[in-house]
Structure formats: structure tokens, C-alpha cells
Amino acid sequence: MIRRLLILSAAALVLQLIPSRAAAQEHAYFVTYDHYLEEPGNLEIGLSSTSGLPRNGESPYHAPWLEIEYGVSGWWTTEMYLEGVTTHRDGSGFTGVRWENRFRPLKSEHAINPVLYFEYERTNEASRIQKEIVGSGSLDFQPISWLRSETMHELEAKLILSSAVRGFNLSENFIAEKNLSEDEGVEFGYSLGISRPLAALASGTPCRFCAENFVAGVEAFGGLGSTLEFGRAGQRHYIAPVLAWRIADRATIKASVAAGLTPASDRLLVRIGYIYEFSTRGRK
Amino acid sequence: MNATLSLVLSTAILGGAIAHDASWQAPADAAARVNPLASRVEVAAGGKKLFGQRCSECHGADARGTDKAPDLTSSEVQAQSDGELFWKISSGNTRRGMPAFSNLPEPQRWQLVMYLRSR
Q1: CA spacing 20 to 30 A to B90: which of A1, A183, A247, A260?
Q2: In a mutagenesis test of the B interface, which of A36, A70, A109 is the best target, namely the one with the most B β-carbons within 10 Å?
Q3: Which residues of A touch B91 (CB under 8 A)?
Q4: Is the Cβ–Cβ distance between A185 and A133 less than 8 Å?
Q5: Closest-CA residue to A115 (of A220, A37, A226, A180)
Q6: CB contacts < 8 A (A, B)
Q7: pLDDT tens across A69-99, in order?
Q8: Within 13 Å of residue A172, how many CA atoms lie on the same side as its CB?
Q9: In degrees, to the nearest 5, what angle opens at C-alpha A140 toward C-alphas A186 and A123?
Q10: Residue of B66, B93, B94 to mutate for A, most A C-beta atoms under 10 A
Q11: Alpha helix stretches (DSSP H) within chain A
């Protein structure tokens, strides 16, 4: 499966050659969602990874994921994820699929813009991409082959609130997740983000390194226990500076380094992503 | 059956994107806003570049519209105030497929208004 993901990433790079024009969206966040949905008819393909440096001498890991996002309409974006993991000592493997849908109920911009998010996940216990964190407890560092045998079906919902304030984006995500495969109650999590472009005015000439092509910010995320276990002990919380660089009209690279804030958190999560966007609907 | 459903959905979505939405009107205070960059002709070129990056996919490279979005050089659009255009760029209209560009800093949105005025 890792080989398959690498092939798909090569395909994403080849997409640079497609003569289409669509503005890449510079979402700097990896975990937090804002209220900007995919433009109708646009397809976004992203290859990202989460590299974790655990505490207590556990094996470092690298968890790549491929995301394919499509703007169905101005108020509905759908997205599919394929994810895997490889570790220094514990093996490698495919860790599952996710299908998410985001709906923006309001027509225009408001002080606070709500988005409703629903996701179905079919993942296994080896999943390490940590696109969101819910519940409590640290990651399970068993051999990947063992962890892959425990498959979970989960439903997840998020309330996304997002605002544009004086050039900044402020986003708050509230997460509830239900494991349909075993009774873990309903698990909760959160994510908060603030970001802004580094330049207010656009220059008149094409440029790759000018400040207007960069968005910087910070996001914080973590688990908040569950209906069965709501104590703070064992919760994972992270804070991460994030940076997005729009390298071309259609392509964005982003990166973040998240620091674990609790003993149950990994020491560091290093994330890198490459996003490519193009229009699937022609014009006159 | 699936093909028919897809066709109906696509037609509805694309049709909606170009249909006129009479209820999509800027509030009076937003419509009255003045472009703070109006006297800075040196920043207009940035508006042209932004239009090429953000808007031309739907509105066409010359802003004269495509099957996805309307002609921005039309008298109907040009009759609107700078403040109305700024508000529509900022707010978007999810029901008509127009994205909100409030993620762009305000000066860049005013640069877009400057470019539209030059068309």
C-alpha cells in the first residue's frame, strides 16, 4: 500500500502538466478546518504525511496520506482519504480510508461562519496520521501487523466555526466521534487555529517567493475524553506553528511542527503536505 | 438511472451558478464603502494578477464571463458601487457557486475591485 501511495504521489506531481487554471487554496492548517470550501467543480489532490517522534523510546513513525477533495457545489465539499504507516522497527501497512463531507449552511459571509462536517472512517488501530485527535490515551505502539488486525468503523461529526477578522482567520472545531465496532462511548476532541497571509497587497508581477504567497499561523488540537472517560489524565494535546507556501497558481506546500504538551502526547509531530488543485469543468 | 441523476444534479448546480440572485445584495453600509486604494494607481497591476489567479477560471481571462460565471464587464455589474463589488467578493454566494474571498487581505480585495473598474 505504501508503494501505491508513492505511485499516487508521483501522479499528483505529473498533474502539474495539465493545462488547467484554478487557484490553490492556502489553508495553512493540517488539523483545523475553516469555512472555505472547495470551489464548485474543482478537484484537489493532496499528499501529506505525519512523522511522529514518540516518547519513552518507542519507534518513530511516518504516516502518509492521500486526499482527494471535490467541490460538489458552493455549499458542499466531499473528500476521500487513503492512509498508511511505516515505522522504524514495527513494520508498515495500509491503515484505512476516510470519507468526509462538509456543508456550509449559510449563503454569505458572517461574523461567525458555521460548517457542518460528517465523516465515515474505516481504519485500524495502526492509524497514525492524526488528522484529528479524540478521546484519551496515547498511541498503541505494538507491531503494525497486530494493530492492523483491529479494524474500526467510526462516524465522526464536527462543528466548524470560522471567522475572517482584520486579515486573520480564526477557526474553532468541536469534534464528536463514535466507534461503531466497539463500545468506547462518544469521544470528543477540539482544534483551534489562527492564521493570516504575510502580505496585505499583491505585487504587480508574478513572483514565487514574495510574502503574498505565504500564510502563517498556529493551531492547537487534542482529545477531550469520552462519555465513558472524561478525566484529563491520558489526554493528548498539541500546539503547532503552521506555514503554507503557494508555489504556483495551482499548487501549495505546507508544513507544521507540533509539540506534544502532555505525557500521553508524542514529543513531536512533523507534517508536510503538497496540494494540487485543478478544475474539472470546462469553460467556453 | 445514475447517469440521469448526475445530469440533473450537474445541470442544477451549473445552472444555479450563472443564474441571477436578486437577494444577493450588499447591505447599505457595505455598499457605501469607498476604495481606500483608489488613488494608488501603482497597485492596480496587482489586481490584474489576482484576477488571473483567483477569478479568471470562472469569469474568463478577460472578465467577460464563461458558462460558469457572469460577465463582469456588463453594465449591470459596472453600475454597482466599489463597496458592493468589495462586499460580493468578500462574502461570496454559496448558493450560486461564488466562493468567499475573505481569506484574502482587504487590500487585495480592493485591488480586485480596481481591476474590475478598469475592464
Answers
A1: A247
A2: A109
A3: 108-109
A4: no
A5: A37
A6: 115
A7: 999 999 999 999 999 999 988 999 999 999 9
A8: 6
A9: 60
A10: B94
A11: 2-14, 144-147
Burial class (CB in 10 A: 0-12, 13-18, 19+), A20: middle
Chain A interface residues (partner B, CB cutoff 8 A): 21-23, 25-26, 34-37, 39-41, 72-75, 104, 106-109, 164, 167, 169, 196-197, 199-206, 212, 249, 279, 281-284
| pLDDT beneath 50, residues of chain A | 1, 5-6, 8-9, 11-22, 283-284
For position B19, what pLDDT does the model report? 46
CB contact under 8 A, B105 and A197: yes
Substitution target in A25, A42, A252, A283 with the highest count of B β-carbons within 10 Å is A283
pLDDT of residue A163: 97
Grid cell of A95 as nine digits: 491503515
Quote the cell numbers at residue B113: 475591485
pLDDT in tens, chain B (119 residues): 455 555 444 444 444 444 467 889 999 999 999 999 999 988 989 999 999 999 998 999 999 999 889 999 999 999 999 999 999 999 999 999 999 999 999 999 999 999 999 98
User: B100 and A108 in contact by Cβ < 8 A?
Assistant: yes
Give contacts of A283 with chain B, Cβ < 8 Å.
Answer: 57-58, 60, 66-68
Phi/psi region, residue B84 (left: phi>0; alpha: psi -120 to 50; beta: rest), is alpha
Whether the CB-CB separation of B36 and B110 falls below 8 Å is answered with: yes
Q: Strand A251-260 and strand A237-248: pairing?
A: antiparallel
If you count them, how many residues does chain A have? 284
Model confidence, pTM? 0.87
A214-253: burial string, b at 16+ Cβ within 10 Å, e else: bbbbbbbbbbbbbeeeeeeeebbbbebebbbbbbebbbbe
Interchain pair B68, A36: CB under 8 A: no
C-alpha cell at B69: 460565471
How far apart CA A228 and CA A263 sit, in angstroms, is 21
Reduced to 3 states (helix: H, G, I; strand: E, B; else coil), residue A255 is strand
Percentage of residues in chain A with pLDDT exceeding 90? 80
Q: Tens of pLDDT along B42-72? A: 898 999 999 999 999 899 999 999 988 999 9
